[in-house]
Description:
By secondary structure, the chain is an alpha+beta fold. It is 35% helix and 34% strand.
Amino acid sequence: MQVNPTKRYYRAYKRYERKHYPMDYVDDCVEAILTNDKEFLAKHKDHPVGKNREMHVNRQYNDDWLLYYRTDKETHELILVLVALGTHDELDRFANM
Length: 97
């Protein structure tokens, strides 16, 4: 599966990295999406929100830290599009995109 981060996701990733957030949790979430680890996805509340999906990055550290993503199935191959990273308030406008 190909992974395509959006510009917004890339900027948010760098912003959280500068704030010393544990970014290995985000990397673990992306890995779980790629491997379709159902137990991990259920533990981190993976669910649909509009056209995207939402996952809580680390529920013990900060339950308000979210990863928005979608899979693009228009082509014959699956493409994981990492849409955004942030809090509920920051990502509220992405719910219907």
